[in-house]
Design goal:
The protein contains three helices and twelve strands. It is mainly beta. The protein has a single domain, classed as Beta Barrel (Porin). Strands 1-2-3-4-5-6-7-8-9-10-11-12 form a twelve-stranded antiparallel barrel. A hairpin with a 3-residue loop joins strand 9 and strand 10. The longest helix has 11 residues, at 3-13. It is globular and about 70 Å long. The two termini are 36 Å apart.
Length: 265
Amino acid sequence: MPRTSLFLILLAFLPVAPAALAEETAHSCDADPQEAETSPWDGGGELGFAATRGNSVSESLNGRFNVQYTHGDWIHAMDLFGLRSSAEHLVDDGNGGTVRERGTTANRYTAGAKSALKLGEHRQFTTALRYERDDFATYSYQQSASVGYGTRIMDGDRTRLDLQIGPGLRRAHNVEEDRTESGLIGRGFIGLKFDLTENTELENTLLVESGTSNTFAQNDLGVSVAMNSHLALKAGLQARHNSDVNTEQKKTDTLTTMNVVYRFR
């Protein structure tokens, strides 16, 4: 399946009707002033960069952007993530000496989209799409689409815990064996948000996609400290696991970040 096909499916799963948006704009002047202050849009972005110079030369850049739109009983969300790193290392020049050579050490990006239809106060019918490209993994790309049931099992003043589960399909390309794998998967998602203080939030998400050929799991842990209503500093730890990898590769990768976050709502 080419990449363009996945994004065509993505558009089908995100039925944000332009007519509905136009109607909402037309009635904005008649809305209650208090309601007008509440925007249906929520989201933000984060960015981190590190560089070294001297005996070693390297650069690393990671960024994320997410947005959510709520309209009636529908909630639509999109998340984009990218990571790229490069470094210089010494190599033999063939004449008994060494020269510096620059190479890419990490190049990965992901795109995800979700839509949820509210079935009650804390129950949802969910759809999810995910695309991942990684130049240094056993699977050069992974594509998945799933449906499921979601519920919020904790909804306190400081703690929110969401759970999603359902079936889906996955398509992935194994670089070592040069073959494309397709099959059914079971998808599970757990999302936790906990307010440590008035301006400090802990967030942890766990995604699992399990099939006959491979089980993929990703856990993202982050602690953010708000500096004002829009800016925050965030420390994050990401752990990714694939059960089926090449013999020379590790099954688990970790990424530690310290980013500046901007949020709008």
